Fold this protein.
Amino acid sequence: MDELLLSKVRLGVVAELLSFDWVAFSELARSLDVSNGNLGAHLSKLVDAGYVEEEKSFANRRPLSRYRLTKGGREAFAGHVAELQSLLKATP
Amino acid sequence: MDELLLSKVRLGVVAELLSFDWVAFSELARSLDVSNGNLGAHLSKLVDAGYVEEEKSFANRRPLSRYRLTKGGREAFAGHVAELQSLLKATP
DNA sequence: TAGAGTAGTCTAGAAAACAGATTACTCTGG
DNA sequence: CCAGAGTAATCTGTTTTCTAGACTACTCTA
């Protein structure tokens, strides 16, 4: 059971990154309706776990952090869903 | 997104109750390898939410609490899994 | 009737999530 | 040029949740 994927915010991040590549920090904060501090903490965990890749750069002379899902992150999510689904299927 | 189903212990309870009806408190504690206090707290939440039904009785003159998944609980879990799965499917 | 065992609740400490203040810039208007 | 507003993200302290183990209450055996 993957502890990292037992969180509303982290699942939201993964969901968004499944659809879009290289999403900006502020875009994630806006669409997930979560405070910056909270989002930053959750992103750090996902990055530390290797589920998400972080790219820090500058755009228009302002800092810009962007994120994408790694192969490992995608697989972890798929595995997590499959695991939950197998619980459901194992019953009559 | 169902907050109640974002917990390892509560998911474990649901998983076990999907397979077996009327499972005893101590059986759950044993098979999930979780402390009594912790299990009691999580069961309370599931009961309060109407996901799990609680039956307190006596067996051999000793107290015995047993639990089963309600229809609502089963549906909530199925819905949760479906929701996660739809995220995965929505991508190429 | 002392001691060991069982069932489950209570309590208080640890861990996690969260919001808002803060730092560090950039850009615009007076 | 400099004040004020805006943006990006991190830092900090509070609140909530989780968790383990102590505790209550009772039973059974020796």
